[in-house]
User: Fold this.
Amino acid sequence: MSLANKYRPKDWDDVIEQKYAVQILQNHLMNKKFNSVYLFLAPAGVGKTTLARLFASKINNAPDSYVEIDAASYNSAEAMRTLVENASTGSIGYEYKIFIIDEVHALSTQAFQVLLKIFEESPKKTIFMLCTTEYKKVPDTIKSRSLILKLAKITNKGLHDRLKYICEKEGLNVSDDILTYISNVAHGGLRSGISKLEQVISAGVTDLASAKKVLDLGISEDVLLEVITNLDDCSKVLRIVEDEIYAQCFGPEDFKVSLQQYVTDVLKYYYTNEIRYTNLSSVEGLNNVDPIKLRKLLKKLTFMNVVNKEIMDGLFILFNEEE
Ligand SMILES: Nc1ncnc2c1ncn2[C@@H]1O[C@H](COP(=O)(O)OP(=O)(O)O)[C@@H](O)[C@H]1O
Ligand SMILES: [Mg+2]
Assistant:
């Protein structure tokens, strides 16, 4: 079993953060008053499935007392109809019939319609828990019938403390700078953090530099360095992006995220002169970076939340800007 599964919370006090959602679910349990549809909305690996399963088990006061389907594999109207039939006729042996539909955004339009129909009839003691990372792909008609529970990304401290806890439980000695590094690069996802920890453990490395190599997170520092040292030469930057980034199967979003992280790290290094405060594996070539230019770039990258190819084209204009 993977560490992520092994350490899936079995009770409320084991859940990291997500206080607001946990509070609501606990209130519903206390009052024994349930909505018929809950929609868990969050980025990957922050506790949607975990909370849905935990809540379901608590409602029926029995572990695994729910039916779970993965809409990414069963997305047809037919699959929903079978589910709906179960909901309206057969008993599954517990007080409440609970259906967890994971990755619900993957349902076909017809499947959503079937689902809607049963929501409208709202059979007694039947509860649906829908999970999704993609709010926009869930029809408004579904959303308007759901209690929406938004989960946040896990904070770096939350990630770090959970990873540390897992290491302690497993009797593993992983240095704190590695745990901090993993927390920084997990982008708020606990599953991602735990699986990175697992990679480092199974590679048997103990120092930060080797851990960084093991995790090798994509666009290399060399390429990013080339980008930031050529900010005045738009066509050169474009060429680097085409040849070294898009051609290596990275998308605009990867580029933006990596560049943002890299520039942050380079600035941290510039102001502290300490590589250990950064996620950099080398500081070679950083002596003649222009901090003012980088600060401006970072500010703009930070404001640029949604990135697609059109926005990327706009991004190149930034590189060319005069001081
Ligand atoms: N809030 C959390 N508290 C504790 N562990 C969590 C939390 N969120 C995620 N995890 C860990 O990450 C794994 C995947 O979480 P999961 O709930 O399946 O994420 P998703 O939001 O993608 O459904 C869990 O098995 C657990 O180990
Ligand atoms: Mg999930």
